[in-house]
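Worked Example 4.2. Consider the chain below.
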Amino acid sequence: LGLVLPVLALVTGTIASTAQQVRGATIDVLRQDYVRTLRSRGVSKSSLLFRHVLRNAAPPALTVLSLQFVGLLGGAIIIEKVFALPGIGSLAVSSTISGDLPPILGLVVGMVVLVVLVNLLIDLATGWLNPKARLS
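Applying the procedure from the previous section yields the following structure tokens:
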């Protein structure tokens, strides 16, 4: 219950921009010729939306999510300080102020590994959703 405000403060902007990105990508895909062709062939709206439109609109949204994940890591430090929560951000700030190098290096390496893993997962999901992306 005590995490509701920090989580809301952290994800409000992320949800809005992700929704905007998904909406824009979906509208672009809906304007494509093949969607019109599928509609004329009598493909159901749910099948059209989930099997064709969202599958082709997902890669841009996944890219935005991966970029926002990095921003959320930085935002978590500020949220921890504002709401006086103990966590990695508090450890990073206190270690930086005291000049304690090993925790800072460990946090940096840990965050780099986390960002690389998230980007790898996003690339794998993009390849799974769009077979054309596997070639590049």
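The longest helix spans residues 45-82. The chain has five helices and no strands. Compare this with Example 4.1 before moving on.
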